[in-house]
Backbone:
């Protein structure tokens, strides 16, 4: 029986060897299991089973086999396989312990050690490990090791802001070009990085097009990460529309890299900000995909969580915003953004006092970050209209008190509140700080030392401010200090003399002797060139020289020239020079003294009144005999009365109206004119 079992085992081993060479690890695993049925503690069979499971992607099962046979599979025998399974299962800390506990550090373990250090973001140790591997290894994987080394340098430049050293790597592959571009982005050299990415794209197309089995879709999928980095550069350069278009093109390709999709979705959310929140809510789902946390760095994951909290605030999800920001604060207690997001949410809820209290508590607990927090507190106070309290908060930031920007802001705010004494005190404190700083740097030596440009600028601004607000005596001391630093400064001397002239005229006369004479102040200016310059508003006409015949001709033309006649104003057709014009003719009719208004109540002849066909005229009015004997009420056309009336009419602009009849006639004409159309 033992001989038969040994023969069967030999046949199974031959099957395992043949399947392993052919890459058929599933079939090899079946043969290995049969061998283990014969001898369950066969170390070689157990090792083969672990390798077959790893090749088939069953890392969890492989690790289970290792852990259940610890007596047989010791760390010396199976250290690499165990560490690799832990690495692939994202148990990075466990993988590191397994590698470090191995008695012998093989080349395989060193390669895995470098990968583990990179995932743990221990970039300095990782860089040293890859350098040692490249130095002591010579095989077909040298190009991959150089690619990994360049990735470490890019990560240092991006996340740790370390200036990368020149590794002397020949950028012959698109991976090396891509990593070099990432390192340039970390340094802020965006234009150079874009050129590197364009070169990487060309190399990628050339490399993949050589393989006939690779389709255009496969090439575009491989280029997605390069295009994503290009879009990121565009976004940093402010070309948000171009970046957004490229981001959306990558998403349409549906790449399998969940890390790439999460980064692109996050960047789109940052472009949208508080606009297009519906699109942002769809994109944020891509950042929650399974496995994203194992593909991105800690800072990338943190940035995504920050943006989720901000999106919750923009979409008025107050509880969700508070929950996310509180979680972020517990993970990174010293980080500014979580507390700032919480304060912003409180301000949206009109709880400004509570927001200021929250910021004050954070500043007390984390003095290192107090400056930025206090600047935010001051901004909130200004928004509430408490300018004086905002000034008090700003003055409590000791490390910024002497900065010109802070001094300018405080002086402006105090001036707005008309607190001139406090504004001058701000100037004084800043000037004293520079004096003490200069004393410290000079180590107490008594030799005269010139003041720094910032110090002198503060003194000058203080003097100008004091002069503007009538503090002449205080301004004089500042101006004297400035003149002492530079006795040749004529501008400062002139200011000093002007100030003394209001306080001590005798002193002003004495100082005026130091002014340069007028001869030394003569300016060498080419007047003609200045007048002919592009910005000149007045150009003096050059006088032309007249000689001989030209002069006589000019004089002759002057005699011929006639003065232009002024055009006479047009007069009305019925203008009568004998009649004095109405002095109120330029006023509107309603504003004239003789205007009586329209007379109401009088009706014209009752024409068209009543029902159709009826008449309101009495029978006596239709009597022809009575009409003939009665005097006419209006002139008839063509009669003498009509002619005389027409000849004596004076227009209303020249004379007052003759009386009511003329006005009535005018009204009748207007009504007659407006009665066209009928019913």
Residues:
């Amino acid at each position: 029986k033992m001989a038969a079992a040994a023969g069967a085992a030999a046949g199974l081993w031959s099957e395992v060897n043949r399947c392993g060479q052919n890459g058929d690890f599933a079939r090899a695993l079946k043969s290995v299991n049969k061998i283990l049925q014969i001898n369950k503690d066969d170390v070689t069979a157990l090792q083969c089973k672990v390798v077959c499971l790893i090749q088939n992607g069953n890392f969890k099962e492989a690790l289970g086999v290792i852990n259940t046979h610890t007596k047989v599979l010791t760390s010396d025998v199976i250290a690499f396989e165990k560490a690799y399974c832990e690495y692939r299962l994202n148990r990075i800390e466990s993988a590191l312990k397994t590698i470090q506990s191995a008695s012998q550090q093989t080349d395989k373990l060193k390669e895995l050690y470098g990968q583990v250090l990179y995932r743990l973001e221990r970039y300095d140790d990782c860089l040293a490990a890859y350098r040692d591997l490249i130095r002591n290894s010579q095989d077909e994987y040298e190009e991959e090791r150089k690619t990994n080394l360049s990735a470490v340098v890019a990560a240092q430049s991006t996340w740790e802001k370390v200036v990368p050293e020149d590794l002397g790597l020949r950028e012959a592959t698109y991976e090396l070009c891509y990593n070099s571009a990432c390192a340039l982005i970390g340094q802020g050299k965006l234009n150079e990085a874009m050129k590197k990415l364009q070169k990487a794209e060309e190399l990628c197309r050339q490399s993949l097009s050589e393989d006939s089995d690779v389709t255009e879709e496969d090439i575009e999928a491989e280029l997605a990460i390069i295009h994503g980095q290009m879009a990121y550069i565009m976004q940093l350069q402010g070309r948000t529309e171009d970046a957004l278009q490229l981001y959306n093109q990558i998403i349409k390709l549906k790449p399998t890299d969940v890390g790439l999709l999460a980064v692109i979705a996050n960047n789109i959310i940052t472009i949208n900000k508080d606009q297009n929140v519906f699109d942002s809510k769809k994109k944020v789902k891509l950042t929650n995909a399974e496995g994203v946390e194992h593909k991105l760095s800690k800072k990338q994951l943190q940035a995504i969580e920050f943006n989720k909290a901000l999106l919750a605030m923009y979409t008025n999800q107050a509880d969700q915003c508070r929950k996310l920001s509180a979680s972020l604060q517990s993970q990174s207690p010293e980080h500014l953004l979580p507390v700032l997001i919480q304060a912003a949410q409180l301000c949206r809820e009109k709880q400004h006092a509570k927001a200021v209290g929250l910021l004050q508590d954070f500043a007390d607990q984390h003095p290192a970050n107090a400056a930025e927090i206090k600047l935010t507190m001051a901004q909130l106070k200004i928004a509430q209209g408490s300018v004086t309290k905002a000034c008090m908060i700003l003055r409590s930031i000791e490390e910024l008190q002497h900065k010109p920007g802070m001094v300018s802001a405080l002086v402006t705010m105090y001036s707005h509140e008309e607190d001139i004494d406090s504004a001058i005190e701000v100037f004084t404190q800043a000037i004293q700080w520079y004096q003490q700083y200069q004393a410290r740097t000079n180590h107490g030596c008594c030799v005269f030392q010139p003041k720094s440009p910032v110090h002198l600028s503060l003194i000058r601004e203080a003097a100008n401010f004091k002069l503007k607000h009538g503090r002449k005596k205080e301004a004089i001391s500042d101006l004297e200090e400035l003149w002492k630093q530079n006795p040749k400064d004529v501008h400062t001397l002139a200011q000093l003399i002007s100030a003394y002239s209001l306080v001590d005229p005798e002193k002003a006369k004495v100082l005026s002797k130091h002014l340069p004479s007028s001869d030394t102040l003569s300016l060498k200016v080419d007047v003609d060139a200045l007048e002919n310059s592009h910005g000149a508003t007045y150009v003096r006409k050059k006088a032309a020289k007249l000689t001989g015949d030209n002069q006589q001709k000019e004089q002759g033309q002057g005699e011929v020239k006639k003065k232009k006649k002024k055009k006479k104003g047009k007069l009305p057709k019925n203008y009568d020079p004998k009649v004095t014009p109405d002095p109120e003719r330029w006023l509107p009719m309603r504003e004239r003294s003789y205007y009586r208004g329209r007379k109401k109540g009088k009706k014209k002849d009752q024409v068209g009144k009543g029902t159709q066909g009826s008449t309101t005229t009495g029978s006596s009015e239709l009597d022809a005999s009575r009409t003939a004997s009665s005097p006419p009420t209006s002139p008839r056309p063509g009669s003498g009365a009509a002619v005389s009336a027409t000849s004596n009419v004076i227009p209303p602009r020249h004379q007052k109206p003759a009386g009511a009849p003329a006005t009535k006639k005018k009204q009748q004409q207007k009504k007659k004119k407006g009665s066209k159309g009928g019913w």
